[in-house]
Amino acid sequence: MIRRRFRSYAAAFGASLLAAPLAFAPPLAPPAYAVIVFDPSNYVQNVLTASRSLQQITNQITSLQNEAQMLINQARNLASLPFSSLQQIQQSVQRTQQLLNQAQNIAFDVQKVDQIFSQKYANASLSATNQQLVADARSRWQNTVGGLQDAMRVQAGVVGNIDTNRTQMSALVNQSQGATGALQAAQAGNQILALQSQQLSDLLALLAANGRASTLSEAERAAAADQGREQRRRFLTPGTSYQPGNAQMFNTGN
Question: Both 107 and 65 in a single domain?
């Protein structure tokens, strides 16, 4: 009985000796790759770096947008005006020029003016016949009437251009106000200046035609006065004045 108890105590003791190393053995450490280490300073530095990078990207995007807008503005400034009134302006100038070129008898030419004035408006020739004096007077009268008619034709042509000029001016102002860039605005302004130049040319043509008509009237009066003096001289010159004679009013049947 005692021997059995000793054996049981011995077995229990041996089991306790085997279990003791396990109980007092230190726990096993986890592997190094499974450990997560958090460094606050490194985290803050990474956030700041990412923020700076994002800001740089934002700046680059803004710069690209500005460059794109600049290119768009340059394209608008270089865009040509899709409207031209040059043809209509040239046609108005040509109409007025044609009226001036159709001047009757005495054209707007310096050499022709000198030639006709030396022939028709000079001092009355002492050797010219009375028939020639009358013919010259009639020619001067025709020149005066033709000059007045030419002036009125130019006046009518200038008045006819007013409506065309009004239409063109309205169109050019609308184009200028709706211009998308500097070039279109400049081109619209240039065409407005061209239209004003055409109007000034009409005004000059009108002044020239009126002045021509007035000058012809004055020249006719001056030539008529000189011719009147010559005819009076001839009338009063002895031997050439009026001589009375017999006048037969009814047929006497002889």
Answer: no
- Segment 165-215, tens digit of pLDDT: 999 999 999 988 888 888 888 999 999 999 999 999 999 999 999 999 999
Q: Which of 61, 78, 95 is the last residue of a domain?
A: 78
81, 183 contact by CB (below 8 A): yes
Question: Do the beta carbons of residue 181 and residue 140 sit within 8 Å?
Answer: no
Tokens found for residue 224? 């008529």
Full-prediction pTM beyond 0.85?
no
Would you list the DSSP string of 104-161? SSS-S-HHHHHHHHHHHSSPPPTTS-HHHHHHHHHHHHHHHHHHHHHHHHHHHHHHHH
- Give the H/E segment covering residue 251: none
**Contact by Cβ (8 Å): 171, 85:** yes
Residue ranges making up the domain that contains 63? 45-78
Distance CA 101, CA 109 (A): 10
The 10s digit of each residue's pLDDT in 50-106 is 888 999 999 999 988 888 888 887 777 778 888 888 898 999 999 999 999 998 888
